[in-house]
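[step 3/7] fold_predict: job queued, chain A
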Amino acid sequence: MRDAEAAAAPGQAAAQLPPTVIEPSPATTAVQPARHGLLRPLVALGVAIGCLAGAIVFVTTDRGDPSTPIAAATEQAAAAASSAPPSKTPPAPSPPSPSSPPETVTSQEAHEQALAIDDLLDESKPSRGSLTRAIQTILRCSNVDSGIKSIERVTRQRAEQAAAAGELDTDALASGQQLESALVEALTASHRADQAYLKWAKRYKAHDCTGPTVGDADYDAGNVASEEATAAKTEFVDLWNPVARQEGLAERTEDEI
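[step 4/7] structure written:
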């Protein structure tokens, strides 16, 4: 009978049983508060580390990312500078190089070369006059010895003048090479004439101022050389006078050389 009642009302029997209460053991109750106390500082430390990492990432990203306001402003300024039109302000003129010689140097050099030629011409003029007077003295057969000494002196002077003309610097003058060549030829021909006249004068004295003048070999040779000198002097003065005018020096004629 009891088995039949138990089988007939199983739900009722289960409902009447009191609920089972599982109480925690003392060990479990002691561990839980300790765990809560340890987790709180760990969580706080993790939050601090996360905030610091976020700040670093923000700063790094702000410096390098062109989308940030600072990078964008920098890029806009660079683009504006590259697209700006070139300045129309003319560049300041560069000062002249100190190694470049001024024009006055060349002009001064030309003037000094012209002065050297002019001095040589001044020396040659008395020689011509001395030769002419000496020949006339010998032809008159008066003071022949003095006349011969004068021709000897003129002959030495002509040799020195011809050598000096060959050493002149004329590269800064107009037609300087032709100018020098004509002067050297004029003075050299005059020297040849002086040598020929000297031979004639000595022989003329030895014959007591007798014998031919025109027709004498040495006298005629002197005349020929003198004509050659005159032709060279004419060429020289044609080149010299323009230079003399430019340099403020005296112009010459062939008779003055």
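[step 5/7] annotate
The CA atoms of residues 214 and 220 lie 6 Å apart.
Residues 1-39, 51-74, 98-105 have pLDDT under 50 and may be disordered.
exit 0
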